[in-house]
Amino acid sequence: MFATRVRRLWGGLVLVPVLVPVLVPVLVLAAALSGGGASAAGPARLALVEASAWGAHWIELELPRPMPWRAFVADGPPRLIVDLGTESLAAPDVPAAGAVRPLRAGRLAAGWSRLVLALDRPLTVAHAALSEGRLAIELAPAGRGGFADAARLAPGHAAPARAAPPDAAARGRARIVLDPGHGGVDPGATRGDVREKDIALALGLEFAALLEATGRYEVLLTRRDDRFLLLDDRVAFARATDAALFLSLHTNTVTEGKASGAAIYAPSQIASDPASARVALLENRSDQRAGLPGRPEQDDVTLTLFDMERPATEARARIAAQRIVAALVASSRAIRSRPLRAADFRVLRAPDMPSLLLELGFLSDPGDLARMQSPEWRAEVGRALIRALDEWREADEDFLALMRR
What are the record's GO terms for cellular component (predicted)? Predict the structure, then answer.
């Protein structure tokens, strides 16, 4: 059995020149698992052995207990994805070595965590087995064609189906969907130990409470905890609830130069400027960075139907964006020089629902970071958002009435 052979390798029982003429040093990665009884058994240990005589690679993950699992490859760039049935998986902090390099780890969904490892060449999962608390994975060389085929068959995670809530409009309230960006295995922008996903979630929960307290809005969130969601699943959830507006919450960071202030992005297939195009391109790759291939683009018929509705929807979104910018300018000086922008963000492509992406500031700017970490400042922004949405609702009713004539 493959697992037996690997255990013997790690145990040092079969390390003879006849079988393994060239043995790359073993790399041991500590990946602490927590939740579900993991802590008592200590950290899981991931070990990598490369044996050139077999032309293959092995990964062994020692688990504190038996648990559900799956392993598959993803393309763009080549990665190995290992999903484990545990609530939490800490990213291994080790130097890169060998054919496999740890990228990130984190919560994927309720009861699941994901470990993403970069591959330095196209490899496929030739065999995988769980035995005696060890998950052993054999990786075999693959040409680009074979690797691409395996990557296309990689499974994805759809958001759980949720029933649409009762009609909010019938109760005189507008339904708003807030979308805290990133989450789970995808931290988003980072600066030191500050992660975009955490700030976005705090903003979402606090904004939701403020909007609900007015009695004029019903607020739903795409996530209320630290979990990963596909970009398309975020939009699908909002559309299924018949939301009046979808607002995705984000932060940004720069590694060179300086940038600060909030900005609001409206949907547009043509970006307002090169910087906005780059931001959209980066955000649209969130699924791939998390180890999932994402959903394919719609077919030509679907796109044609979408194009028939999109102009009016984008116009409604721009009106909302203008109101939000005006309210932020009136309440805070922490605004970018050109705060109203446009780009082709994947989460803003719903043809029948006004959608916006609000970027509250830059983690790389000390002033922005201090403001975004301040509950008082976030509350001020939340109140500005309420004023903007109140004005937009009136303007949107006028716009829709004009469209019906």
Answer: outer membrane-bounded periplasmic space
Q: What is the pTM of this model?
A: 0.63
Residue 80, both tokens: 């190995």
Q: Are strands 44-51 and 123-131 parallel, antiparallel or unpaired?
A: unpaired
Q: Please name which of 122, 130, 155, 113 lies closest in space to residue 59, comparing C-alpha atoms.
A: 130
Looking at this protein, which amino acid is placed at residue 44?
A
pLDDT band, very low/low/confident/very high, at 134 (cuts 50, 70, 90): confident
Nearest to 24 by CA among 99, 96, 93: 99
Cis omega (within 30 of 0) for bond into 17: no
Structural domains of the chain in order of their starting residue, each with its CATH number: 2-152 (no CATH), 169-404 (3.40.630.40)
> How far apart are alpha carbons 243 and 200 in whole angstroms?
20
* Weakest-pLDDT range from 4-13, 199-208, 289-298, 324-333: 4-13
Rounded to whole angstroms, what are the CA distances from 149 to 63, 73, 143?
30, 10, 10
Query: Collapsing DSSP states into helix, strand and coil, what is residue 41?
Result: helix
pLDDT of residue 109: 66
Please report the pLDDT score of residue 168 as a whole number. 55
**What size, in residues, is the chain?**
405
- Residue 5 is classified by DSSP as H
Query: Could you count the other beta carbons within 10 Å of the beta carbon of residue 40?
Result: 7
Residue recorded with tokens 């060239």: 22
User: What is the number of other CB atoms lying within 10 angstroms of the CB of residue 374?
Assistant: 12
